[in-house]
Amino acid sequence: DGGITQSPKYLFRKEGQNVTLSCEQNLNHDAMYWYRQDPGQGLRLIYYSQIVNDFQKGDIAEGYSVSREKKESFPLTVTSAQKNPTAFYLCASSLAGGTLIQETQYFGPGTRLLVL
Amino acid sequence: AQSVTQLDSQVPVFEEAPVELRCNYSSSVSVYLFWYVQYPNQGLQLLLKYLSGSTLVKGINGFEAEFNKSQTSFHLRKPSVHISDTAEYFCAVSHMDSSYKLIFGSGTRLLVRP
After folding, report:
1. What does the alpha-carbon distance between residue B39 and residue B35 come to, in Å, rounded to a whole number?
2. DSSP assignment of chain A, as one string?
3. Which of B42, B102, B103 is facing A105, going by the closest CB pair?
4. Which of A32, A75, B9, B74 is the most exposed place for a label (fewest CB within 10 A)?
5. Peptide bond connecting A75 to the previous residue in cis, omega within 30 degrees of 0
6. 3-state helix, strand, coil in chain B (%, to 5)
7. Burial B18-49 (b: 16+ CB within 10 A, else e)
8. Is the sign of the CA dihedral A6, A103, A42, A15 positive or negative?
9. What CA–CA distances, in Å, run from B74 to A2, B31, B86?
10. Cβ-defined contact of A98 to B98 (cutoff 8 Å)
11. Which of residues 41-100 of B touch A (CB under 8 A)?
12. How many CB pairs under 8 A join A and B?
């Protein structure tokens, strides 16, 4: 079955620690995205990548970093510089990153990050 | 700047009753419009989308939405809801010239009661 997988489902971070959230897709999509979701709020874009080896900052990139070395993988690192990391993190992908007409973004099941 | 407003944070409704979830957007350029559903502790699933053409859009699970350009609205409707429709619903918009970027509303929790 094609889809997007995120791991782990729950992640605990200690103060001053960097943690990495995994996102893998087997849909052969070029574009991938990371969103943050806080209670009572919509999703906010952290980073996006329209092609391998290229990525751009979204609206709330501070305290986060990404890499895109493979088409199917787009890991997100929450660094110690992110002072309020507790949230639900969602990864998404789309066929061509909106370069043509709007493609649907497909979402993974999410990772909930909690600070100890 | 674009923005999306979902005025109702929660909508309680009895099973088999009709429901409308409201969405208004602000944009100075043409947009694409979307409704997504999120079940507890899960990712988002696309219900329907408006790109162009007919202003009445039909989606999955019996939902439909109507694009009203003059009122800048894209309200979601279902004539008869089920318990299983209980979930969070998000309206989202993107510009035609930067269509990779989705702007989300704050969400509406639909609570269907027996």
Report:
1. 14
2. ---EEEE-SEEEE-TT--EEEEEEE-S--SEEEEEEE-TTS-EEEEEEEEETTEEEE-TT-TTEEE--SBTTB--EEE-TT-S---EEEEEEEESSTTSSSPPPPEE---EEEEE-
3. B102
4. B9
5. no
6. 5, 55, 40
7. ebebbbbbebeeebbbbbbbbeeeebbebbbb
8. positive
9. 30, 11, 20
10. yes
11. 41-46, 49, 51, 90, 92, 94, 96, 98-100
12. 65
Q: pLDDT by residue for chain A (116 residues), tens digit each?
A: 669 999 999 999 888 899 999 999 999 999 999 999 998 888 999 999 989 999 999 999 999 999 999 999 999 999 988 889 999 999 999 887 555 556 788 999 999 999 88
Which amino acid makes up residue A75?
Answer: P
Specify the DSSP class assigned to residue B18: -
Question: Which residue do the tokens 């999955």 mark?
Answer: B60
